[in-house]
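Protocol step 4 of 5: obtain the predicted structure for the target chain.
Materials: sequence only (see below). No template structures provided, no constraints applied. The aim of this step is simply to have a reference model before the mutagenesis design in step 5. Sequence pasted as it appears in the construct record:
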Amino acid sequence: MTNLSVCVNVTQGKGTGSFGKRRNKTHTLCVRCGRRSFHLQKSRCSACAFPAARKRKYNWSVKAIRRKTTGTGRMRYLRHVPRRFKSGFREGTEAAPRKKGAAASA
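Step 4 output (structure tokens):
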């Protein structure tokens, strides 16, 4: 009979053997930007810098700014502002009824 000995690596590296130990999350969802970038121990979002008042933005990443800028979302308030600006932000008035003859002659 031959005695076979298996060599087991005792030291723990960063590779395949260590991935089984990774079962706790460092980041969770951010309430401001909605990304999974809020660091739980630091209490800081790595995407938008929440809870800082100013949003995180760097000019070395122009494409990232383009993705997050005004106009990429719904703009629920801002999309109506140009139309309201034309009338001087007038409110509470109603348009006069259009005359029937003007529509037929055109």
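Step 4 remarks: DSSP finds three helices and three strands in the chain. The first strand starts at residue 27 and ends at 28.
Proceed to step 5.
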